[in-house]
Amino acid sequence: MRRGRLRVLLGAAPGVGKTYTMLEEGKRLLGEGRDVVVGFVETHGRRATAAMTAGLELVPRRVSTHRGMPLEELDLDALLARRPEVALVDELAHTNAPGSRHEKRWQDVEELLDAGIDVISTVNTQHIESLGDVVLQITGVPQRETIPDRVLRAADQIEVVDLAPQALRDRLSGGLVYPAERIDAALSNYFRLGNLTALRELALLWLADEVDSALKAYRAEHGISHKWEARERVVVALTGGPEGETLLRRGARIASRSSGGELIAVHVTRPDGMRARHPGALDAQRTLVEQLGGTFHQVVGEDVPRALVEFARSVDATQLVIGVSRRSRLAAAFSGPGIGATVIRESGDIDVHIVTHAAAGAALSLPRIGGALSRTRLLIGFAVALVAGPLLSWVLLQFHTETSITSDVLAYQLLVIVVALIGGIWPGLFAAVLSGITLNFLFVAPVHTLTIADPRQFLALVFYVANALLVSYVVDQAARRTREAKRAAAESQLLATMAGSVLRGEDALQAMVTRTREAFGLAGVRLLLDGEPRVADGEPTRDDRVSLVPIGERGTLELHGPDLDASERRLLQVIATQLDAAIEHGALASAAEEASELAETDKVRSALLAAVGHDLRRPLTSASAAISALRSPELRLPADERAELLDTAAESLDSLAELVTNLLDVSRVQAGALAVRLAPVETADVVFPALDELGLGPGEVELDLADGVPPLLADAGLLQRVVVNLLANAVRHSPSGERVRIAASGFRGRVQLRVVDRGPGIPVERRDGVFTPFQRLGDTDNETGLGLGLALSKGFVEGMDGTLEVEDTPGGGLTMVVTLPAADAGAAADAAPTTSAGEEGPVR
């Protein structure tokens, strides 16, 4: 019997539309004449999903009872007896009710497949067994229902039902995923934008790995060995040297340019097992590879270039990153092509990147003016003269005749020119003198002596040496001009970098000190301000020479390293001027910041005086008038009027006491001297007293204090003040007839208390100011108090190690979210919403 085919619709999170897509596909197959039935579908009360079942045959569910609760499950026997061509079975990772034939629904599906029935099913990323730890880190929600990876990988077809994270949040806000009372908690917990983005990436990467495995299997079955560039795989060759970190970071940047790129590091060891010269560096690079999300491999090979290329081909690499050779040019000239040249020749269709590393750290170093040519070129010039001179003499002796003296002289002249072009004036002069003596001794009569019989021959030798000197001088001057041009370019680049550093502000000093050390090849540089170290770069030793350069009136630049020549000191003076400008710029910026803070403080003082002046005057005036009337001997007041005056005085004094208390609380919060006594507090024990204090009932407030929410770790008195302030604001701004909602939920060891209103809300650009003392969102009539409520509330919550945040209410309005630690982390974890295998999702 033919085994059925399994098609799985994979979603990043609940609500992306997997069940809807499954039913839609079922209807399409039904329209093509296929026999399709719905074995099990969970609509979760979504009208659009339920409507999609219309026109499809539904196999009745099996009902079992567990602890007195009726549970509906897939009726496997009924579905096997019906034997459709295609069965739609939702929630592949679902755990069956106790007493079922199989523990998991995927096991039911296996039996359907064995019976030759094709199955279309659904699963969420969080239910894949290998991703459980990653999902827990992202969402904080443990997954109790999982499906083994092998089962999912064995599916004949896996498709991702994708929906952008913000689009999913919009669906959630519109009530298309959960009922209205669950939307706020879902948006703030599991369905945060960052969570959804990470889960979406996880789903796409898992499927990409699965597709990659299938591609490798196909290529192996069909004997395809050449590279298919389906995905960028960057192999970085590590020698164990200190340049490895540079190569790894370059390779990571190359891999990140394409979606799903892989970073693979490889180190080739010799068959004799010799360790790298820097084993500590190699261990550190292994750690860096893991931090960059790559993998580290170690292979053994006698031929390092061939081993690298073979490894790159084995992993289907598209890019190979190697470092530039650390050998000198002289060593490279005598030892043949290096690893880089061999790798390029053998790499074929693999792109090879040769990355500079030693020179990268000295990109702004200034060439030394000293000798025009490098020491290496001088040594090579002398070596060519010593080796090529005797060789040329031997060749000329083999063909010498009495009439060949002219060609002999020209041959030696050519040798002198070649040596001069390579090594400059001193090797050229050495070659000229040596070849002149050789000519006189071997080819000019009388031979085998240094005697010159004809004065014209002496004159010819003088011209010969003069020509060599002139050629050598021209080469030396050209090299000197080249060195000076390079130095001028480096100086210009250095000064441009310095100027840019000044414009960048607070990091300018560190950048300029670093560039100074690099430019002059110093061991270390320190900038001292008023005798105290400000910034430093490098690692100087005790043996280094120390030079001091004054920087304006306050600073000193301390240089550790060799003495600088006159041209370098002129450039250093320019750098000192730039440093002085940067220091002055920083001082001015600090002064401006202090002035800004003083201005803000003055604004607050002015607002405080204006508000306090009115708010103090009003209760004081009322209390004073009432008491004066009571004390007046001329007024004989009835008992009821005296009682009314006493009540007025008492209310005014209570208002005054509350005002003073709030001002003291604000000062304690701002001074960090708030006394907080943390203890476990039940949410209801805070909410109900706050409602009583404000005189609010069911007509004004809707409560959603779910069972199982762990107690908070808070100061009950302070938290009650916070709830009172938030409730008062919400009720004041809610439209007539709209109730304020208070909801509590637990998530990842924290408890959230949400106060939700349907008022006008607060524009996003003005939300930063709602927690500022003495702010009333533009009110200036001083009739609504000091505007301390939200400032105090935020200070109280932060004093209890919590947060107070402002969010939009879905459908319009404002939601104030108080987040505090749960009293017991274990209890909080138990109370945290858990996931079922379906679209219900991990929210309360």
UniProtKB/TrEMBL annotation:
<dbReference type="Pfam" id="PF13493">
    <property type="entry name" value="DUF4118"/>
</dbReference>
<feature type="transmembrane region" description="Helical">
    <location>
        <begin position="378"/>
        <end position="397"/>
    </location>
</feature>
<dbReference type="InterPro" id="IPR004358">
    <property type="entry name" value="Sig_transdc_His_kin-like_C"/>
</dbReference>
<keyword id="KW-0547">Nucleotide-binding</keyword>
<dbReference type="InterPro" id="IPR025201">
    <property type="entry name" value="KdpD_TM"/>
</dbReference>
<keyword id="KW-0812">Transmembrane</keyword>
<dbReference type="GO" id="GO:0005886">
    <property type="term" value="C:plasma membrane"/>
</dbReference>
<dbReference type="InterPro" id="IPR052023">
    <property type="entry name" value="Histidine_kinase_KdpD"/>
</dbReference>
<dbReference type="InterPro" id="IPR006016">
    <property type="entry name" value="UspA"/>
</dbReference>
<keyword id="KW-1133">Transmembrane helix</keyword>
<keyword id="KW-0902">Two-component regulatory system</keyword>
<dbReference type="InterPro" id="IPR005467">
    <property type="entry name" value="His_kinase_dom"/>
</dbReference>
<dbReference type="Pfam" id="PF02702">
    <property type="entry name" value="KdpD"/>
</dbReference>
<keyword id="KW-0597">Phosphoprotein</keyword>
<dbReference type="Pfam" id="PF02518">
    <property type="entry name" value="HATPase_c"/>
</dbReference>
<feature type="transmembrane region" description="Helical">
    <location>
        <begin position="409"/>
        <end position="437"/>
    </location>
</feature>
<keyword id="KW-0067">ATP-binding</keyword>
<dbReference type="InterPro" id="IPR038318">
    <property type="entry name" value="KdpD_sf"/>
</dbReference>
<dbReference type="InterPro" id="IPR036890">
    <property type="entry name" value="HATPase_C_sf"/>
</dbReference>
<dbReference type="InterPro" id="IPR003661">
    <property type="entry name" value="HisK_dim/P_dom"/>
</dbReference>
<feature type="domain" description="Histidine kinase">
    <location>
        <begin position="611"/>
        <end position="824"/>
    </location>
</feature>
<keyword id="KW-0472">Membrane</keyword>
<feature type="transmembrane region" description="Helical">
    <location>
        <begin position="458"/>
        <end position="475"/>
    </location>
</feature>
<dbReference type="Pfam" id="PF00582">
    <property type="entry name" value="Usp"/>
</dbReference>
<dbReference type="GO" id="GO:0005737">
    <property type="term" value="C:cytoplasm"/>
</dbReference>
<dbReference type="InterPro" id="IPR036097">
    <property type="entry name" value="HisK_dim/P_sf"/>
</dbReference>
<protein>
    <recommendedName>
        <fullName>histidine kinase</fullName>
        <ecNumber>2.7.13.3</ecNumber>
    </recommendedName>
</protein>
<dbReference type="InterPro" id="IPR014729">
    <property type="entry name" value="Rossmann-like_a/b/a_fold"/>
</dbReference>
<keyword id="KW-0808">Transferase</keyword>
<dbReference type="InterPro" id="IPR027417">
    <property type="entry name" value="P-loop_NTPase"/>
</dbReference>
<dbReference type="GO" id="GO:0000155">
    <property type="term" value="F:phosphorelay sensor kinase activity"/>
</dbReference>
<keyword id="KW-0418">Kinase</keyword>
<dbReference type="InterPro" id="IPR003594">
    <property type="entry name" value="HATPase_dom"/>
</dbReference>
<dbReference type="GO" id="GO:0005524">
    <property type="term" value="F:ATP binding"/>
</dbReference>
<dbReference type="Pfam" id="PF00512">
    <property type="entry name" value="HisKA"/>
</dbReference>
<dbReference type="InterPro" id="IPR003852">
    <property type="entry name" value="Sig_transdc_His_kinase_KdpD_N"/>
</dbReference>
